[in-house]
UniProtKB/TrEMBL annotation:
Organism field: Altererythrobacter arenosus
Protein name stated in the entry: histidine kinase
Residues in Histidine kinase domain copies: 273-470
Membrane topology designation: Multi-pass membrane protein
SMART domains named in the record: HATPase_c, HisKA
């Protein structure tokens, strides 16, 4: 269901507008229909009451009142005059010694009570009163009059009639009058639909340009934020447009983007200075230790210098992620992983290639190689072996590196992704490392719009995965 709903602000606002208008018009239509029904019922009750009173007073008076009430019923009962209305009005009064209840039809007690109340208000009392409904085709009085066959032919015989029979005094004959049941007011539904359509068109014509004036700058701002997240080294000032609130938002974003870009530039300058100021003395120190006579001490010093240099390189690389100048390029990920595995195999490391799907994706190959190397290095360091695989899953592709090590306690997995967090307590790079490998791999994955995940395998060992968009 959620997929059918519009996702844009413009679409959702227009949907809410349409639904609100439909609900409001439905309520209005129901009220108007109910009011028309009440008018129709009131006209019918008055017509029946007057006709039965006129019938009891005398035939001449009955004919006059019947014609008058037929015209009134046609006017108040919905505006539809059937072709047989005049003929029905001239039917006059039927005299019968038999109660109409024995001739079929559905009795209407509520209508009887309403007519009695109306008559009571005018101090008119009837000994007996019966109100019922039946179709014209079931009326023996009409069936016995051939001249009405032509008038009522076709669907006219199916038209329902309201019959009122009354006796003023006990022992007197029944006087029966009949009125065609007014049709339901159909014009209201059509008028409500037309009114709804016209109102919606007018509101759309007025609101659509205003909403576009709001949503177009927001769409541009969204696209700009998304681009800046991927390329923070290229700030672009958006043109301020739209309502005043949107203009202020765009101006604030432009200022924030400029400050972030300035801070990143200052960070790069600072990192360059740190790298130069630290690597230069380390290189000089590496030359000087060659004069140390004790070979054991000289080797230890050289290893310490190399550890410091590699840690410094990791820190600088982590700081530069997201500011890479390497462009995205179509890369065969299976071929990239195979070449990495071959490098480790050439060095005699227990790294193997597992089942792999052939996938081409837009990546920064140099940075992705570094991320996978870090995962393979961790697998070898803590698990002794590494198995690399590639799986395509819908619109994403996942690079997996499995090992057979002890895994990571579940409560420590998220902490392992933080800088300088290590699975081994020593500062020895051969065993514990500097604690930046996973952090750098996560940053590279996020730079590509992906994510890094760690999970203990059911059969033992750890699985590290880099999920990337295809």
């Amino acid at each position: 269901m959620a997929r059918l709903l519009p996702r844009s602000l413009l679409g959702q606002v227009m949907l809410v507008l349409a639904l609100g208008l439909m609900v409001g018009q439905a309520v209005s239509g129901a009220m108007l229909y109910r009011a028309a029904e009440q008018r129709r019922e009131t006209a019918l009750v008055h017509s029946l009451a007057f006709r039965i009173v006129a019938a009891l007073e005398g035939p001449a008076n009955a004919e006059r009142i019947a014609r008058h009430q037929a015209r009134r019923l046609n006017r108040d009962g919905g505006g539809h005059r059937p072709h047989d209305m005049r003929g029905r009005a001239r039917l006059g009064v039927e005299l019968s010694q038999v109660s109409p209840l024995g001739q079929g039809g559905k009795r209407l007690p509520e209508l009887e009570a309403t007519i009695r109340d109306l008559l009571d208000q005018h101090d008119l009392e009837l000994s007996k009163l019966v109100v019922l409904r039946r179709s014209a085709g079931d009326d023996p009085f009409l069936q016995d009059r051939p001249r009405f066959h032509e008038r009522l032919g076709g669907e006219g015989w199916q038209r329902r009639q309201i019959y009122v029979a009354g006796i003023a005094q006990d022992g007197a004959p029944w006087r029966i009058v009949r009125v065609p049941e007014p049709r339901a007011p159909r014009a209201i539904v059509g008028s409500i639909l037309l009114q709804t359509l016209v109102t919606f068109v007018v509101l759309v014509a007025l609101l659509f340009p205003m909403l576009r004036r709001i949503t177009r700058p927001l769409a541009s701002l969204t696209a700009r934020v998304d681009d800046f997240a991927r390329n923070p080294d290229r700030p672009v000032a958006l043109a301020e447009s739209g309502p005043e609130d949107i203009r202020h938002l765009i101006a604030a974003h432009n200022a924030m983007e400029a400050r972030i870009a300035a801070m990143l530039d200052e960070k790069d300058v600072m990192l360059g200075a740190i790298g130069h100021d630290l690597k230069t003395p380390l290189a000089a120190l590496r030359v000087r230790i060659e004069n140390v006579a004790d070979e054991t001490q000289r080797l230890r010093m050289a290893e310490s210098i190399e550890d410091i240099t590699r840690t410094l390189d990791d820190i600088l690389n982590l700081a530069r992620v997201g500011r890479s100048t390497d462009p995205l390029e179509k890369t065969d990920l299976a071929a990239l992983l195979s070449s990495l595995v071959e490098e480790y195999e050439d060095m005699g490391e227990p790294v193997e290639m597992a089942e792999t799907d052939r996938v081409v994706a837009q990546v920064r190959a140099t940075w992705l190689r570094r991320a996978v190397r870090n995962l393979i290095g961790n697998a070898l360091r803590y698990g002794g072996t590494a198995r690399v695989s590639l799986a395509a899953e819908g619109d994403r592709v996942t690079i997996r590196v499995d090992d057979d090590g002890p895994g990571i306690p579940e409560d420590q997995i998220s902490a392992m992704l933080e800088p300088f967090a290590r699975g081994e307590a020593s500062r020895n790079r051969a065993t514990g490392g500097a604690g930046l490998g996973l952090t750098l791999a996560r940053a590279i994955a996020e730079q590509h719009g992906g994510a890094l995940s760690l999970a203990n395998r059911a059969e033992g060992g750890l699985r590290a995965g880099i999920s990337l968009p295809r």
